[in-house]
Design goal:
It contains one helix and 25 strands. It is mostly beta strands.
């Protein structure tokens, strides 16, 4: 399966996707686990970055900016939004953990001289999407209404037995305002952690059609096509979405074969 990147159960680097490894142009994603007092350093170079504190407490330094001891979740399934930090291009970054922590580093090309900034939980938008067994809970971390060059970042919790990113939709055609072209990664977490979920990525002509069982810490790459997720009975699903493309707008098209259910 070309689109599934397995997460590592041990070690600092959990998973990594680069434009080179994905064979695309925009989205980069990595997740790290940090022990108390452990640090990770990197330079944003020609990219903008959104660091999401998935769990634990960390301090972040980006150039001359320092945010100390941010983060209040013990799990991505806690019903509270994360702390995040947006960092533009050409910044040296250090993330220091104060307790066991997990962070996501979301990236895309960056060229604007924007200010690094803290995104506090109260600054994020929380909403409920869908109904019945299609209900899921959304947190907009870096939506298109907030300033960035290309990055869009959102997290979604889907209860056990529910579907998500559903009805199946796609955003692989530059046809604004009807549809935008955006690459996307899904970083999956499961509760309990031994669980699994299912994700399918497919196009209308089925030239791309992959169905995957995803486990805790796996990433699914979505270069094009529809990409629904289903959480089986007994296991709640979490995923962190990173999207980026030539235009920073999210407009999607539902699969016409399944759009009927929206009228019910």
């Amino acid at each position: 399966m070309r689109l599934l990147v397995k997460g590592q159960a041990q070690g600092r680097e959990i998973v990594s996707v680069t434009p080179q490894s994905a064979n695309w142009k925009f989205v980069g994603f990595a997740a790290y686990r940090l022990a108390p007092e452990e640090r990770i350093r990197f330079d944003t170079a020609e990219r903008e970055v959104c660091i999401v504190v998935l769990r634990g407490v960390v301090s972040v330094q980006a150039g001359d900016h320092v945010w100390k001891e941010i983060g209040e979740r013990d799990s991505v399934f806690d019903q509270v939004s994360p702390y995040s930090v947006y960092v533009p291009h050409h910044h040296a970054v250090t993330v220091s953990a104060h307790k066991d922590a997990e962070i996501a580093v979301c990236s895309a090309p960056g060229n604007s001289d924007l200010n690094a900034r803290l995104i506090e939980p109260g600054m994020t938008g929380r909403s409920v999407r869908g109904r019945g067994s299609n209900t899921r809970y959304v947190c907009d971390i870096l939506p298109q209404t907030e300033v960035a060059d290309h990055l869009l970042v959102v997290e979604v919790v889907t209860p056990a037995g529910h579907s998500s990113s559903y009805p199946p939709h796609k955003h692989d055609t530059d046809n604004l305002p009807q549809e935008s072209f955006l690459e996307e990664t899904y970083y999956h977490r499961l509760n309990p952690s031994q669980g699994f979920a299912f994700q399918r990525v497919y196009t209308d002509d089925r030239s791309l059609d992959e169905a995957m069982a995803v486990e805790n810490h796996d990433v699914v790459m979505v270069p094009r096509g529809y990409h629904p997720v289903v959480a089986p009975h007994g296991y709640d699903s979490y995923y962190l979405n990173v999207m980026a493309g030539p235009k920073r707008e999210w407009h999607f098209k539902n699969d016409p074969a399944h759009e009927w259910m929206l009228a019910k």
